[in-house]
Amino acid sequence: MIPTWPLFDDAEIEAVAAAVRTGKWWRGAYELPEGSRTEETSHAARFERLIADMHHARHGLVVNSGSMALDIAVRAAGLGPGDEVITTPYSYAATATCILQSGATPVFADINLDSWNLDVRSARAACTPRTRALIVVHFGGRPADMDSLLTLARERDLLIIEDAAHAFGASLNHQSVGTLGHLGCFSFQASKNISTGEGGAIVTNDDALAARCRSLHTAGRDPAGDWYAHDLLGWNARMTEFQAAIGLAQLRRFPAHAEQRERNARHLLATFAGVQGVIPQSEGAEITSHGRHLLCFRYDPDSWGGISHKRMFITLRTAGLPVLGGYGWPLYRNQVFTDPPAFAAQTLTVRHSPAEWAELCPNAETLCRTGFWIHHSVLLAAEEEIAELGHLLHRAHARFGARSRSNL
Ligand SMILES: Cc1ncc(COP(=O)(O)O)c(C=O)c1O
Asked: Is the CB of 88 under 6 A from ligand 1?
């Protein structure tokens, strides 16, 4: 049976109960200055330290969502009106709305059709003298081509924010994602590989950026200053002690889960390999650890009788394959980008219609018409079930191929 996600047992339940019993429901209860400081460490502080250590980062900070992690990263980096930030249109909205929120301009570059990640040639072509940063997504947990993106960043003096919402624990050439650029953002929302219900984290090796992120996540305070002194325009983005307690429990089961996902992903990819017209997201030799959040593939409509994405989805689901249809359209087609709020619209330095963006991002358009995802929880099923999924895909193609041939 495919496990329902999130997976938990008494460890998570006990962890939350224990956090409740402390009576200290927020990290400030452990950190209040003026005499109430204790020797104990909050769950949030322990969780963020373990996340930082696991990713070999000097600093970690837990926050209340992955979206907020991105928002804080963008503000900590000092991006704002007049700055252009290049990112992928094949992602979740927060990857690019965080740019709008700060008054900077999101500039969409195309993805690479093999990796599903930001294409360096397209990113390079999108650069202008106003370009200040790249927000790079490691889609599905597959690390992006950071070597070439870092080269571009060095050449242009750009900052890199990694949206590693899908890539907790992933690495490239043994270096953890999230620490390849300047700031790395994770999500612990319910669907993610480590879940706290809602939640996120930022990692960085940059002391100054870390200090700004920490201040921004707690109402712009100087952590060493007066509680009611606010230096920066920040929010309350603190993670609760209950979320962090669950996170600590989830972290303990992560290594075994990661191993099982990896084993089953390889098995599933091997069984998919022989199916005509099914093209998996590329793996990449330099990937030393894949996040395995989604197993992604696209179909070649010509090999499937020219059927539409919707019909292909129905065909696969009817065959018993637990696929997800993915994004129906690239980010730039959303109203928030075609008709942004006035405060953001007035500082945009690049504006294109969806048709113009589509011309610049043909691969993102293709993926929205042909891409499918399989959620990581499927990769936690028993080996026999994984093998059966491969057979189902083969049978679906054989049946569909026969049907489409008979219609000719
Ligand atoms: C690529 C990507 N970035 C950022 C986020 C935002 O994370 P959250 O839902 O925790 O706000 C998500 C969430 O699905 C995501 O998929």
From this structure: no
